[in-house]
Amino acid sequence: MLLLITALLHVVETPETRFDWVAPTRLTVGLIAVPVVAVLAARFMNDGGDASLMFLFVVLVAAAVVVSSTRFLPPTQYPLAIFLIGLATFLHRNLLTGGVIGADVQFQYFLAQHIQVTHVWSPGVGSRIMTLPMVTAVPAAISTLADVSVAAVFKLAYVFVFSLVPVGIYYVGRSIFGNREAMLGSLFFIFYHISFSLTPGKQLLSELFVVLLLLLLFEHGLSTVGNKAVAVLLSIGVIHTHYGTAFVLGGSLLAGHLMLGVVRRIVDEFEHDSSVVYPVTFLGLAIAWYATFSPQLLNQILRMPLVIGQQVANLVVGTAVGTGANYIGGQVTVLDQLNVLVYLVLTALLGIGLLSRVATHGSRLRRGERTEYVDYTALSIPMFVFLASTFFVIVNLWADRTYQMVLVVLAPFVALGFRALFAATVTALERLGKPIDHHPRWSLLAVLLGVLFVLNSGAAYAAVGNADTATFDSNANDYVFTDDERAGATWLKEHAGFTGSGSYRSPSAASPSDSTVTIYTDSVSYQLLRSTTPETYYDVRIERLRSPWHPEFDQSRLQSGYVFIRERSVRDVSGSDRLPITSLSREHAEDVTEAGTVVFRNEEVTIVRVEGRSDG
C-alpha cells in the first residue's frame, strides 16, 4: 500500500514520467530460461539431492553475464536482463526446502507467524524487530489475505520484490555513470553472497526503498511538494524495514552535505542539489519512531562509541569477530583464498572508481566548470569510509552485511574503476609504443563477476568435492533448514515444559529463573530455534555449544536441560582436521548422547535430555 501511494503521488506530480515498453530481443527472451532452470534445479535438490541442474544453472548465469557485456545485448535490454538474472539467482537458493533461509530472518519469520495467529501487531510491546512492520506485520497480512504460508511470502513475494533492487540500481546508475557501468554494477550487487544466499529480510527489503529514494533524489529532486511527500513515504518505508539501513543512509546523506559545505568554502560556489533539510528530517523521523517504540535500540546505538573503543583497544591482541580482517584470516583453503582475492580486486576497483570520480569533480571545480551528480559522490564517500572501517571495527553490522548494504550506492563504481584502470593501462602501453583500442574490454570485468558467482554459489567447491552449501550438497551444514529439522525444533516447543505461552517478555522478565529451560545446540541450529522458541517470547535460554567467542566444546558446563543435535552439524574429524566453529565432532555428539536420555529422534535431529550440574 505504501509503495502504491508513493507511485501514484509521483506519477501525479511528475506527469512526464513514462514507462516505455521495449520489445525484447531473442537473446533477452532466451534469458527467461535461466529462472526456469533455477526453479527446476531447486526442485531436483529438494526431491533427491541431485545437483546436476544446479551446475547447469551456474554455467548459464556465468554465460549470460559475459554475453550481457558484449554488443549482442543492446542497452535497451539491460533492465529486463538484470531482472531475469537477479530473479533466477535469488530463486535458486530460496526455493530450497519449505522454510526461510538465513540467520536473522528466522526471528522475523517467527514474529510474522505470531502476528498472523494473534492478529495483533503492537510495536510498543515486543522486541525491537516488532518496530519493523515490513518484515513482521506486512508478511502476516499478505499471508492471511492471499491464503498462503508466511514462508511463501518471504520466499516468493519478497524475492520477486527484491529482484527489482538491482534494476533500480541500474536506473540510478545509467545517468550518473553510463549504461554499461550501471549494468555491471547491478550484477556485482546480485552476485555478492549475502544478496542471494539468504531469504530477503529486513536489510535486503529496506534496499528497495533506498533505491527508490535514490531514483527520486538524483533523477527528479525534491523541488516540488509531491516529490517531498514521496520522499517522506519512502523514508518511512526504510525506517519501517531496517534501523541499520535507516541510520547508515541518513548519516551518509548528512555527512555528504556537510562535506560539500566544506568544499564550498575552499573553492568558488558550485551547483548541487544536496540539502540539509532532508537528511535531518529523515534522521528525525527514525529517531522519533525508534525512541517511541524501541528505546533499547537507541540505547544500543548510544553505546556504539564505547563498543568501537573496546574493539580498537583489543586490536593489539587480535581482530574482532565479524570484521573484515577476522573474515580474511579465517580463509584457509585455496578456493577460500581465491574468493578473498576476487573480493579484494573488486573492492580495489570500487575504490579506484570512487577516487577517479572525486578527481574528476575536483578538476572541474578548479576550472570553474559545471559538475554533475557531485551530491551522489558526496553520499558515496562516507559510505565507502564506513565500509573501510569494518575491516577493523564493527557497530552491530558485520563487515559482510555492511558491504552488501552500501553496494546499493557503491556498486557501479566497480565498473567506473575498471574503466579508469583500463584507460591508465592503455596510456602506459602507448608510451611503450604498443597502442591498443581505447574502448574498455568490459568482458574482462564480466568474467571476473562470473568467477565471483561460481565461487559464492558454492559450485567451485562442489566441483572439487568439497561442497559447503546446501545448494549443492543437502548434507552441508548451513542455514537451509529441512522439514525434519524444523519438526525437531517444534517438538521442543511443545514438550520441553516452557512456562511461557509465546507472549513477549521484556528484557528484565526474560532473565533466567528456576523455571527457565536451557537448550544447548550448535551455532547454526541456534538460529533455527529463534524461529520457534526465541528467548524473548519463551522462558528459555539457548546456549551455543561452540561459538567464535567460546570455540572449545566443554561438556562439563552443561546444566540440566536439552541438547539439540542436528545430524548435519556433526562431523567426523581425525588428526589435524580443522573442525568448523559451526560444527560438533562425532565424538562429542556421542558423549552427550551417552551421558543423557534421548527424548526425540528422527533422521536429522536427536534431542537429548541432560541432568548436568546446577548453578548452586
Automatic annotation (TrEMBL):
Pfam families: DUF2206
InterPro entries: DUF2206_membrane (IPR018701)
Tagged with keyword Transmembrane: yes
Top-level division of the source organism's lineage: Archaea
Bilayer-spanning residue ranges: 23-41, 53-72, 78-96, 129-146, 152-173, 182-198, 204-222, 229-255, 275-293, 305-328, 340-359, 379-399, 405-430, 442-464
Keyword Transmembrane helix recorded: yes
Alphabetical keyword list: Membrane, Transmembrane, Transmembrane helix
Name listed for the protein in its UniProt record: DUF2206 domain-containing protein
